[in-house]
Write a structure and sequence with these properties.
Layout lengths: L2 H16 L18 E2 L12 H14 L7 H5 L2 H14 L3 E5 L2 H12 L4 E6 L4 H10 L2 E5 L4 H10 L4 E7 L11 H10 L3 E5 L26 E5 L9 E5 L1 H10 L1 H4 L6 H16 L2 H19 L11 E7 L1 H13 L2 E2 L1 E3 L9 E6 L6 H21 L4
Parallel strand pairs: 1-10, 3-4, 3-5, 5-6, 6-7
Antiparallel strand pairs: 2-8, 7-8, 9-12, 11-12
Helix pairs in contact: 2-11, 4-11, 5-6, 7-8, 12-14, 13-14
Bound molecules: pyridoxal-5'-phosphate (PLP).
Pyridoxal-5'-phosphate (PLP) binds next to helix 5.
Length: about 400
């Protein structure tokens, strides 16, 4: 490596370390049901560990092979992909759905295909990184409105002279757990002839009567023309989909580069997802258990005066402020065999570092009690130390 490159890399790492923003990976043991308590993941219904789902995956691999072997437009679009797309369309009340390999690629592909430099994109400030990156890739004029602030959005829309306007928001905000006000977004978008795109990565499987998310069965594609959902979270597998009317889906098949120029999702994953989707639709008890766990955690955490946020979803961040404090809490939990995300800038704004606690239908009361005891201990340690600082 040349000296200039070596220095550049070392400087970037040193800065990040200094800022207490250094990221590390933990190697997780192969039996995921084993010793550590996971309050960091997004497997909200426990479907990643459901034997029916991984048996369907094994069966899918035996039947279709280990990989798709080609992109969808070449020879990689198998009948199981088609069946999954149809099931996802029906579930979300849309004409059609289109599979992508990941949610990140779905968002890049949709924004790149729909927007160009004559388009204006309006995003909630707290939108997921993949939406921000997709807007940048599209070359569109991109504006960010204050979180949940319809008045700010409205004034940006009113000032825009672009012929094509696209309003984009997370459905459930991934680091805060709060839910977008879809009704207001629909109203404001329609007033300004803008299209509305909702990325419901954390809502599908969890919210709505049939688990189809905060948009799915409630809002039609006339209201929310572009709906994105991911399969790696509540559905427990991997991949993502875009759902909408035929004109949208056909446009994406033609123009979405992250759809066209990539190998199709492994068919075994599609087979597993068909299984987990049927469980989501037929067994509402997992959602009920998840909601009971959320309510229990919140009740007990309030009692302990933990810094809870206003969230009704499985994402229950504890806002701690400073990077060092957040890291310290996460490490103390880790020592007790409990995983929770230490989320720091640039993922969240400066001064809003947080412990991202996520709940799952798989958690038992006893697991949640262990988490609460460990959190209480972190608080107690700080109370002991604060006179000396
Ligand atoms: C996780 C997430 C994505 C990315 O999905 P992957 O399938 O993990 O790539 C996109 N949008 C939001 C809001 C997410 O939380």
């Amino acid at each position: 490596m040349s000296e200039a490159w070596r220095e550049r890399l070392a400087d970037a790492c040193a800065d990040r370390q200094q800022a207490q923003r250094w990221r590390t990976r933990q190697v997780v043991a192969s039996d995921a049901s084993g010793s550590s308590l996971d309050f960091a993941g997004n497997d909200y219904l426990g479907l990643a560990q459901d034997p029916r789902v991984f048996e369907a995956q094994a069966e899918g691999a035996r039947r279709y092979g280990a990989g798709a072997g080609a992109s969808h437009l070449v020879s990689g679009h198998l009948e199981v992909h088609d069946a999954l797309e149809e099931a996802l369309a029906r579930w979300t009340g849309r004409e059609r759905a289109l599979l992508f390999s990941t949610g990140y690629m779905a968002n890049l592909g949709v924004l790149q295909a729909l927007a160009d430099r004559h388009t204006a994109i309006f995003q909630d400030r707290l939108n997921h990184a993949s939406l921000i990156d997709g807007a940048a890739l599209s070359g569109a004029r991109s504006r960010r409105f204050h979180h949940h602030d319809a008045i700010d959005l409205e004034s940006l829309l009113a000032r825009s002279e672009s012929p094509h306007k696209l309003v984009v928001s997370d459905g459930v905000f991934s680091m805060d757990g709060d839910i977008a006000d879809i009704a207001t977004l629909v109203e404001v978008s329609q007033q300004h002839s803008a299209w509305l795109m909702i990325d419901d990565a954390h809502g599908v499987g969890v919210l709505g009567d049939n688990g189809s998310g905060c948009v799915g069965s409630t809002w039609s594609s006339a209201d929310v023309p572009v709906l994105v959902g991911t399969l790696g979270k509540a559905l427990g597998t991997a991949g993502a989909f875009v759902a909408g009317d035929s004109a949208l889906i056909e446009h994406l098949i033609q123009f979405s580069r992250s759809y066209v120029y990539t190998t199709a999702q492994p068919p075994a994953i599609a087979a597993a997802t068909l299984k987990s989707l049927s469980i989501v639709q037929e067994e509402p008890e997992h959602r009920a258990q998840l909601n009971a766990n959320i309510a229990y955690f919140r009740r007990e955490a309030l009692h302990l005066e933990l810094p809870l946020s206003d969230s009704a979803t499985p994402i229950q961040p504890l806002i701690l402020g400073e990077e060092a404090r957040t890291l310290s809490w996460a490490l103390q939990l880790q020592h007790k065999g409990i995983q929770a995300g230490a989320i720091r800038p640039p993922t969240v704004p400066k001064g809003e570092s947080r412990l991202r606690v996520t709940l799952s239908a798989r958690h038992q009361h006893d697991d949640i009690d262990q988490l609460l005891t460990a959190l209480h201990h972190c608080q107690h340690q700080e109370a002991l130390c604060s006179p000396c600082t």
